[in-house]
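We emphasize that the prediction below concerns an isolated chain of 125 residues; any contacts that depend on oligomerization or on bound cofactors are therefore not represented. The input was used exactly as deposited, without trimming of termini.
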Amino acid sequence: RMTTIHAIMSRIVTAGRACGHSYYFASIARVAHRAIRQLRRPTVDRRVKATQKDKNGNIIALCNPGESWSPLSKREALKDIKSAKRSYYVHELPQKAYVRVVSGNSLQTTADKSSSNNLDNLPTL
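Result of the prediction step, given as a token string:
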């Protein structure tokens, strides 16, 4: 959510700089309205039970056998997470570990006390 809020603030600042004094508040209102509408979109959580890897061991897809979306390419997962359209999580223990984007193009689960919630430790299909 912080990334989304930061993006909203950046849009407001950019709009304020780009327009003349008479349009300043109208522009901010329009940008804020679009941003709030975007935040209200429902986010769909998808459970990840396995991954697909290339010959070097890099994750190339997220999987949950039996689900219509599976397998999902890494590129599509990155796009979903960055846009906050969908979230992905590993749930091997009582606590979910959400998949996040790091360094712009890598997927990683949020830190927790269990290595079984780590994407790299999931079964490979």
